[in-house]
Amino acid sequence: MRDGDAGEPVLRVEGVETHYDATDGFLDRLLGRSRRVRAVDGVDFELREGETLGVVGESGCGKTTLARSVLRLVEPTAGSVYHRGEDLTALSSAALRDRRKDLQYVFQDPLSSLDPRLTAGDVVGEPLDVHGLATGAERDARVRELLETVGLKPSHAARYPHEFSGGQRQRLGIARALAVDPEVIVCDEPVSALDASVQAQILNLLADLQAEFGLAYVVIAHDLRVIEHVSDRVAVMYLGEFVERGPTEAVFDPPYHPYTEALLSAIPEPDPLWEGDGIRLEGTVPSPVDPPSGCRFHTRCPRLVPAAEYDLPGEVWRSLTDLKLRAMEADGVASLTAVSPSGEAGGSPAGDDAVDPLDPTSPTDPTSPDDSISPDDPTDSTSPADSTGPADPTEVPRGTFDVLVREEFGLPEPLPDADAEAAVGDAIDALHDDRIEEAAELLDAVFVSPCERHHPTEYQVGTDHGIACLRYDDGFDEEIGTFADGAEPTGSEPTGSAE
C-alpha cells in the first residue's frame, strides 16, 4: 500500500450515476408510470498508482453496481470515468476492449465467474488469446508463471474449476486478472465467501502482488475489518451515495458519520467475554426507487438533528420521527401500538403512574375516572378473562391507546416540550379514531428535521477527509444540538420536504 498521495490519478470517477428501469408491465410503460432504481446516484473518487481504495456499506447500497459501472461492465446512466485522462464512457467497444488490458475485475463468486468447461490453464490463458499477448509455448509458460505467482502449482493447469477449493478458485480468478498486466484491479468482495484463514491468505496475496507490480485496487466489501486491513483510503456508501471518505486512519477514528459509526460498532472484538455494544439501526434501508428527501440516512439515523423550535433530546426526536414514518407507511393502526393483531399487549411502560392495559384494577386514563375498568365486568374487552384481548387497538379506551402508542415508540408521557406534547396528543387522538392519514399528515407537518429538508454536501473535517452530514456544517450548534434561530445549513440545497 502507498504512503503518499502525490501524482496524477490513474483512475478518476466524476458524477457517476447508474439507474435501472424497474417499470412493471406494458400498461405502466404506456401510461408513463416509470420506476427508476437509483442504484448509484452521483459518486466521485480518485485512485492513484499503487493505492487501495476500500468501498464499504451494507448489502444493497450500490457497491457492486458502482464497481461494474466504473469498468463499463454495466453502462452508467451519467457521469464520466477517466483512465489516464481518457474518458472510458466515450470509448467504442473495440477501444474499450483494448483498454481492458489496464483495468481488470475479480468477481465475488469465483466459481460462477469461471467457465466450468475450461481448464485452469485455459481460464488463465484466455485473456492472452483475446488480446494477442502470447501463443504456443510462450503462452503455456506464461500460464504456469501466473499460477505460481498466485500460489498454485503449474500442474493445476489441467484441472477444472470444480476441482479447486474456494480459496484456490479465488487465486485462479486473480491469476486471470493478472494475465494482461493491468494497472487497476477492482476486487468485488474478494474474500466474503471464504473461511477466515483463507481470507487472510487471499488478502496477503493481494498485498504482495500490489507491492511487486505496483497495482492499484478498488476493494468492495461489507466487512470493515477487511477494509481496514487492506485500504489506504475508505469510502463509506449508503443508498447509492458516499456519506464519508478519507484516509483509513481518519475514518476509523473520530469524527464519524453516524452511519460509519454504526458500522464500526458492529465489528466484533476477539474476546470470548465480549458482549458487544453495537449501535442498532432501526427500520430497513429505504428503496432506491424512491429515496428519502434530504439526507438519505435520516430515516434510520440515531443522531438525527432535531428542529430548533422544540426543546427535545435527540432520542425523543428519533422516536417521534419513527412514529411519523411508520404512520406514513402503515396499513392499519395496529402496527403503531405495542399490541399484536391478536390484541396481546407488548408490555407495561415504566413509572409509578404507568397504566397497564391488561390490569383490570388500573385506570385507563387518570383524568377520566368514568373510564376505569371494572374487574367484574364480563363485557370488558381488556379483561384478563378474554385471553385474546381486543382485535382492534382502537377499541380500547383513549388512555390505554395512548399508553400503547408511547410504549411502542419509547415516548415519555408527557414530552418535555409542551408544544410537541400537544401535537403528539392530537395525532394519537386521530389514530384512536382510525384517522391514520390525518395523523400522519399532522406529524409530517409538525416534526421536520433539517436532515429531512437539506441534502448535505461533503464537509471537509480534515486533510482529504469528507463527511456528508449536517452535524459538520458550520451552522450546527453542538451545545444545543441543532441549527439555532432557524438558521439554514450552508452548502446544501433544500430538497422536497414534508413541510
TrEMBL record:
It comes from the Archaea. The keyword Protein biosynthesis does not apply. Pfam families: ABC_tran (PF00005), oligo_HPY (PF08352). Keywords: ATP-binding, Nucleotide-binding, Transport. InterPro entries: AAA+_ATPase, ABC_transp_ATP-bind, ABC_transporter-like_ATP-bd, ABC_transporter-like_CS, Oligopep_ABC_C, P-loop_NTPase. The keyword Oxidoreductase does not apply. Residues 11-264 form the ABC transporter domain. GO terms for molecular function: ATP binding; ATP hydrolysis activity. One of its GO terms (biological process) is transmembrane transport. Residues 338-397 are annotated as: Disordered. Residues 357-372, 380-390 have a biased composition (Low complexity). NCBIfam families: oligo_HPY. Belongs to the ABC transporter superfamily. This is Peptide ABC transporter ATP-binding protein. It comes from Halorubrum halodurans.
